[in-house]
Write a structure and sequence with these properties.
Layout lengths: L2 H4 L3 H17 L4 E3 L7 H6 L4 E12 L4 E13 L4 E13 L2 E7 L6 E3 L5 H20 L4
Antiparallel strand pairs: 1-2, 2-3, 3-4, 4-5, 5-6
Helix pairs in contact: 2-4
């Protein structure tokens, strides 16, 4: 679900802002898009209500990232036993005008898969960003 729609309450809005700052600390030229999904009926049917989705657009095609935009989806699970929302994983995907180029999932093996992949240094930056997101969302309870 679009991050802008998930920013209900100060705690979640603060975490979304921190998430944007974390990404920009690794990729300073990126511009955050808190509404990456269209608001049409077909798109709404596909959106995961238990995720926070943010796109980051680069000023041009990045040779090192092999993409023009990176979509970040943070997935949660509402644990009825503890009445807490828990982060279960993060997915990031790089896109160009011709579609998805690569994907990284922390739910699986933290490996990059796709037609092309970012260079080794960028892969490590993206993994570090993912680790920081886990720290951010595990440090303070999410309502």
């Amino acid at each position: 679900m679009n991050a802008a729609e998930q920013a209900i309450g100060l705690a979640v809005a603060t975490k979304i802002a921190a998430l944007v700052n974390l990404f920009k600390s690794h990729f300073p030229d990126a511009k955050a898009d808190l509404k990456p999904w269209s608001n049409d009926r077909d798109t709404r049917d596909l959106i995961d209500p238990d995720s926070i989705d943010i796109a980051f657009h680069l000023p041009g095609w990045s040779r090192t990232l092999q993409s023009r935009s990176v979509l970040v989806q943070i997935r949660f699970y509402d644990d009825p036993a503890t009445d807490r929302r828990r982060l279960i994983g993060l997915e990031a995907a790089g896109f160009t005008h011709s579609g998805e180029q690569w994907r990284l999932s922390t739910i699986d093996s933290w490996q990059f898969r796709g037609q092309v992949e970012p260079n080794a240094a960028m892969q490590e930056k993206l993994r570090q960003f993912c680790r920081q997101v886990f720290e951010l969302f595990n440090a303070i309870e999410t309502p």
